[in-house]
Amino acid sequence: MNAPLPDTATLLNTLVEAIRPNLSPETALVGIHTGGVWVAEWLHQALGIKTPLGTLDISFYRDDFSQRGLHPEVKTTQLPFNVEDHPIILVDDVLYTGRTIRAAMNELFDYGRPGSIHLAALVDRGGRQLPIQPDFTGAKIELPAGKNIQLQRNEQGNLILLIQ
Amino acid sequence: MTRSLQLTADGQLKHLLTLDGLSPAILTRILDTAESFIDVGEREVKKVPLLRGKAIFNLFFEPSTRTRTTFEIAAKRLSADVVNLNIAASAQSKGETVLDTVSNLTAMHADMFIVRHAQSGAAHFIAQHVEPHISVVNAGDGRHAHPTQGLLDMFTIRRYKGAFHNLRVAIVGDVLHSRVARSQIHALTTLGVPEVRVIAPRTLLPTGVEQMGVHVFHDMQAGLKDVDVIIMLRLQNERMKGARLPSAQEYFKQYGLTPEKLALAKPDAIVMHPGPMNRGVEIDSEVADGPQSVILPQVTYGIAVRMAVMSLLMGPAQ
Amino acid sequence: MKLHIKGGHLIDPMNGIDRPADVFVAAGKIAAIGQMPDGFHANKTINAAGCIVCPGLVDLSVRLREPGFEYKATLESEMLAAAAGGVTSLACPPDTDPPLDEPGLVEMLKFRARNLPGPRVYPIGALTQKMKGEALTEMAELTEAGCVAFTQADTPITDTQVLLRALDYATTFNLPVWLRPQDFYLARGGVAHDGPVASRLGLPGIPAVAETVALSTILLLARQTGARIHLARLSTRESAAMVRAAKLQGVNVTCDVSANHLHLSEIDLTSFNSNLYFMPPVRGLRDRDALAEALKDGSIDAVCSDHAPVDDNEKQLPFGEASPGASGVELLLPLTLKWAEEHGVPLSDAIDRITWKPAQILGVPGGQLGVGSCADICVFDPRTRFTVSSKTLKSQGKNTPFLDIELPGVVKATVIDGHLDYEAI
Questions:
Q1: What superfamily in CATH does domain C2-52+374-423 come from?
Q2: CB spacing of C196 vs B211 below 8 angstroms
Q3: DSSP string, C146-167
Q4: How far apart are CA C232 and CA C178, in angstroms?
Q5: Is A139 inside a domain boundary?
Q6: Residues 34 to 63 of B: which have CB under 8 A from any A CB?
Q7: Which chains have at least 3 CB atom pairs separated by less than 8 Å from chain B?
Q8: Contact criterion met (CB < 8 Å) for B117 and C318
Q9: Within a domain: residue A154?
Q10: How many contacts does A have with B, using Cβ atoms within 8 A?
Q11: Pick from B117, B115, B76, B67: which is nearest to B302 by CA?
């Protein structure tokens, strides 16, 4: 079944409104490639964030290198600000086991000592394998067994969540 | 003909022994991965935990400080454990065979061997005899290949020129004895450089070198005309013995890169050299230190490229 | 021992026989062909149904590694391997340690070989003392001890004056001289044929002119001295052409090619397989094909194995560090059959190149099965194919470039001097 569900635009707005009261002038957003970057770009604009957007590729920090090798497409990590001077909101599209976030935090710490890190996830699908919880969520959903949820971007640049 | 020793059954890179026979896709993937490692090298913590717990052994049967150090830095930036073995000094002189050395080190839980050896084919030989889980990187075997150098040279060209499909590249010097030149020629032709030139006297060119896909020039003036990239090769002192060349002076006059000869190339041509340079023999200091020289950046790129190679080779246990 | 070789197809090129015929052996000689002699009671009957029966093979170059190189192989093992390959006479080069430059060493070798099962061993004596290319050996004495010819093996004489005098001296006693044409200086430092493959692989090359320059010198000196020269192991197409021309001009010269050069070329080097490291090196495809044609038209007289067992320690090394040489006495027949298949050579001609012609070159009995001649016989199945493997090779040298290759021709029985010295199980 390839149905768009729930309505992605609604989730994005929910996430925006959840974050807005907690912003400070120095807040920096860091999106995790690839879906997290799309969400972060959207949030960055919708929230009018001043600090330039950061993007993180966690390929070099994953814990499954021995099983799966290096990801075929390594993107770059760009953090155009000093991690020590900004409260950071880490942004990902789907929060699942928590391993991606663990890798992302390790990588952020290799850039400096972050003042604080909060986590924003468009979708929390449960199934955590590590003690990591989001601070801001678009929606919490439960997936039937064997199903995955994925964020995609169409040619017009619109974001759509798909369950497969 | 046997299946390529370097690739697994599903086309993944298992060893890096030579650039000959690798697809453009694989070469491009290595270059793209190296881009990410450049960024790592520019931040304060230059390490990533990717190869933590892995043991990389530098097996240098032929001594080299520069190349070995680059591999060591690259391995450490990947958080791997590095062991340096200067075999030239120890085991070989005691008569221990190459295979015995390799077996002993395998027993010490090596995951990767980085091999430099004076004999062409030595890295192939070692790769044919290692345990299935060990990867071999050729750091230079005789005259045959120096694949990581070839890759870092391609990375450098791509950085400065953007693409390969519209370039004229000239390789100048002792191609006959150069493993670097052979690897560069394979990479350039694979990546689609339309014109690869070699410029050298006949005594420094291998028989049938045209069959590797290059145009031969003996006249440096003609050979450098309108080229975009000039790669200068080092001339060893030994070449004057063995009746290949009369003197370093005559060589410099005919084949050395001076500002005047550089002016024959395109105005934005870049000058490369795998190092170490013999100033005044193959290259004039003014050119080596001049604005078109990218010789120093080559060194930085070498670390990133080697990090990329090591990361791509180590992965799921075979 | 009376033997009856029954039901086989007899091919005896020298006597022009190529038809089904039984062979009867008594007292070490061929007693009869075709019809059983009256009162003949065979002690043993060999079933040769479906097989070719031919003269035992005469291999012009088989290294037995004694004296001095027993760690590579021994007389016993190599003679058994030769017999298993259908070889009944072989010539062994003098490049042993010490080299065969003294009568005592030759006598010892002949004595040892005589008392072992396996082929007749004909030592080729050293042309110069210690093979150094400076002082002559006592060729007359060595001939009395059993040498049938004289050679420098793989170490060419650089001093052309010495070469000329060695030829003159040998010719004084009408002794044949075997020379592998190689110019020391042009070949210096090389490990592979100087061509596009070696260039690509970064292997130091030996150009074709290293052979043809030396060959040219040898042919001119041969004409000058009237020496009986045998050219060993030609490897280039120019050499084949030069020999063809020289023969037409009446120069007294014969030549051979190694079975390896009929099948292999520089293309086979790409994996740096050190089993392909031997001298002379394999050359280009055109060279390989020209040699195969020259053997077919008779410009090249014979093919040999150039058997050189090398132990693993000396082969399992990077290419240029390995010891040169390929094992192959057991593969001479299969490789000759494969050459015949691929080049449309009649079986009788192919057998001629490994029996009668080499026997003539050696100047020894053998190579033919006329009634009354010595019973050196090979019985083989030409149709069955086998895969070369280190397990099935009987030589101690497993260093063959044909590992895992399928070849035709399985020897069923080898009779030497009327004795059944080898029988396949």
A1: Urease, subunit C, domain 1 (2.30.40.10)
A2: yes
A3: T--EEE-TTS----HHHHHHHH
A4: 6
A5: yes
A6: 35-36, 39-40, 43-45, 47-51
A7: A, C
A8: yes
A9: yes
A10: 53
A11: B67
User: Domain residues for A23?
Assistant: 8-62+77-163
| Model confidence, pTM | 0.92
Separation between Cα atoms, residue C5 and residue C33, nearest integer Å: 10
- What is the number of H-type helices and E-type strands within chain A? 4, 7
Contacts with B, A 29-68, CB within 8 Å: 57, 59-61, 65-68
Question: What is the domain range of residue B122?
Answer: 2-145+299-314
User: What CATH number does residue A111 fall under?
Assistant: 3.40.50.2020
Q: Determine whether the interchain pair C320/B121 forms a contact, defined as Cβ–Cβ distance below 8 Å.
A: yes
Query: Would the CATH topology of C2-52+374-423 be identical to that of C57-362?
Result: no
Cα B150 to Cα C25: distance, rounded to the nearest angstrom: 69
The closest alpha carbon to B317, from B101, B99, B131, B45, belongs to B131
CB–CB of A66 and B315 under 8 A? yes
Q: Any idea which residue has 């993007």 for tokens?
A: A55
Closest chain C residue to the Cα of B177, Cα to Cα: C202
- CATH number, domain of B202, equals 3.40.50.1370
Q: Could you report the per-residue pLDDT of C169-213, keeping only the tens digit for each?
A: 999 999 999 999 999 999 999 999 999 999 999 999 999 999 999
Chain C CB within 8 Å of residue B15 CB: no
Overall domain count for chain B: 2
- Tell me whether C190 touches chain B (CB under 8 Å): no
Check C272 against B124: CB less than 8 A apart: yes
The total domain count for chain A is 1
Taking domain C57-362, whether its CATH number is 3.90.25.10 is answered by no
Whether B190 contacts B201, CB under 8 Å: no
C18 is catalytic: no
Q: Is the pLDDT score of B296 beyond 80? A: yes
Q: How far is B200 from chain C (nearest CA, A)?
A: 15
Nearest to C272 among B125, B206, B211 (CB): B125
Q: Do C202 and B212 touch (CB under 8 A)?
A: no
Question: Which residues touch B47 (CB under 8 Å, ≥6 apart)?
Answer: A110, B40, B76, B77, B78, B79
- The predicted-structure confidence for A82-112, as pLDDT tens digits, reads as follows 999 999 999 999 999 999 999 999 999 999 9
What does the pLDDT look like over C372-386, one tens digit per residue? Answer: 999 999 999 999 999
